[in-house]
Amino acid sequence: MISWLLVIALFTWMGAIGGYFFKKASGQKISMNLNLFIYLLAGSLFYCAGAVLNIWVLRHLPYTVVFPLTSFTYVWTLAISYFLLDETISIKKSAGVVLIIIGSIFLVR
After folding, report:
1. Which residues are CB-neighbours of 63 under 8 A, at least 6 positions away?
2. How many independent structural domains does the chain possess?
3. CB neighbour class for 71 (10 Å; exposed up to 12, middle 13-18, buried from 19)
4. Average pLDDT, stretch 2-18?
5. Any residues with CB less than 8 A from the CB of 49 and at least 6 apart, and which?
6. Higher pLDDT, 84 or 4
7. Which whole number is the average pLDDT over 51-69?
8. Quick one: how far is CA 6 from the chain centroid?
9. Domain span at residue 63?
10. Which tens digit of pLDDT belongs to each residue from 63-101?
11. Is the CB of residue 98 less than 8 Å from the CB of residue 41?
């Protein structure tokens, strides 16, 4: 089960990184802009790679385990928001992520 959890951690991380690149794209002017293209391409590649891994894991583990664990994407999103986008993280957001982690632990035990 540990190896599957690492794959789940990887595809949720890829989803969060894809979202990060889409956020970076949202700050670009919509025109023939190379940065916009790069951010959209990177975001799409990370999202697609994460989706393929998700589908692969679903072939081997129950949907009732895999799908709820995709909420771990919020953990990565919080970290990315704080460290890469300099967003403020409230106690309420932090508490939500802690509850997600606790819920995930209950799912895999």
Report:
1. none
2. 1
3. middle
4. 94
5. 11, 14
6. 84
7. 94
8. 13
9. 4-108
10. 988 998 999 999 999 999 999 999 999 999 999 999 998
11. no
